[in-house]
Amino acid sequence: MAAEPVFLRDDVVAGFLSYDELIPRLEEVLGKFSRSVNTGVVQPVRSVIPLHQHNGFMGLMPAYIAYEDLLCMKTVAFYRRNENLHLPSTQATVFLFNPECGNVIAVMDGADITFKRTAAVSAISAKLLMPAQAEILCILGCGHQAVSHYEIFTKIFSFKEVRVCSRRLETAERFAARVQGPVKVFSSAKEAVHGADIIITVTNSSQPVLFGEWVKPGAHIAAVGACRPDWRELDDTLMGDAVIYVDSRDGAAVESGDIVQTGVEVFAELGEVLTGTRPALRNKTTVFKSLGMGIQDAVAAKLVFDKWKSSQ
Ligand SMILES: NC(=O)C1=CN([C@@H]2O[C@H](COP(=O)(O)OP(=O)(O)OC[C@H]3O[C@@H](n4cnc5c(N)ncnc54)[C@H](O)[C@@H]3O)[C@@H](O)[C@H]2O)C=CC1
Ligand SMILES: O=C([O-])C1=[NH+]CCC1
User: Subunit structure of this entry (predicted)?
Assistant: First the structure.
């Protein structure tokens, strides 16, 4: 009989997951994923079913990473809810398996993993692609992802100014009161992004929230929301003007409304830049279109599990 799987609550997971350890693991796995030779990093495009009655979706995200002998799957339900519901609009659970037999060894609440690995990947894109003298960061959307993005971006970069704007002013004000550090709250997205060197879009909008004519030439945009082929965060002008980077070309071609609906060419995967196969065009306006990958959850979950195990 296999041992019973351990269940790790979100606060336990959060205690074991640090950005410092996560970032190099993410860089390594993204690089291996994007190499054309077989690196044993296997991850299909997320399969998603709509939950029509509930205005939401359920996605399955399996991944196998041969160099770690790591087998993992995340289930993620995501909703376009209003801000008054008390549960986060993304609900995730991560399963770690024994790859030899397929039995589950750990089940983890996937909230913290999803917040941190997504923000960490955006930070990797910024390290590679944002202008050399980036002084102004602007975050559009003030939900859960905005918090983790604020945390890591202010931890690893130093900006002169951090601005936020959300659909409702109260949400942006609540965000500013919650995070540790200075933030300027804006009621207009156009004014908030004016002159910004880096803009993060972390909204649950299905319509563009960021327009090319507002964006400073040479700025870097990390676009994290709009994970359905009929959802948008960025307008046609911005998508047409910018050099487009993605986490996974296959995922982007199926899931990203900003890419599918504009038909723009993807210049590179982040992993291709990390391995030097494609250049980081820092002097141009760049968009990193993030959709989230099972391999990112897998390396995060392994870090957590190994730490939990050595604490026993
Ligand atoms: N790329 C990835 O790896 C991942 C992407 N996501 C996506 O990221 C997005 C944000 O996720 P959470 O922060 O967890 O959601 P959330 O529901 O906590 O926050 C969404 C925020 O967007 C704001 N918003 C909605 N429309 C807006 C508009 N027109 N202008 C400005 N702000 C607007 C809302 O007021 C809210 O503050 C969602 O679309 C989610 O599906 C989530 C997890 C991973
Ligand atoms: O990668 C992820 O966990 C998600 N991407 C879009 C919604 C959730």
Answer: Homodimer. Binds the thyroid hormone triiodothyronine (T3); T3 binding inhibits enzymatic activity.
pLDDT tens figures, 3-60: 899 999 999 999 999 999 999 999 999 999 998 677 889 999 999 999 999 989 999 9
- From the CA of 116, the nearest ligand is 1
Hey, what are 195's tokens?
């002159």
ipTM over 0.85: yes
- Token readout for 274 is 């990390």
Q: What is the CA radius of gyration of the chain?
A: 19
Residues linked to residue 246 through DSSP beta bridges, in sequence order: 269, 289
Alpha-carbon gap, residue 271 to 279, rounded angstroms: 11
Q: What is the pTM of this model?
A: 0.97
Closest CA to 145 of 210, 68, 82, 204: 204
DSSP 62-90: EEEEGGGTEEEEEEEEEE---TTSSS-SE
Which amino acids bring their CB within 6 angstroms of ligand 1? 78, 83, 88-90, 114, 118, 140-146, 166-168, 171, 189, 202-205, 209, 224-225, 227, 290-292
User: Nearest-CA neighbor of 245 among 222, 216, 266?
Assistant: 266
Which one, of 207, 260, 204, 203, lies nearest residue 229 by Cα? 260
Ligand 2 nearest-atom number relative to CA 227: 6
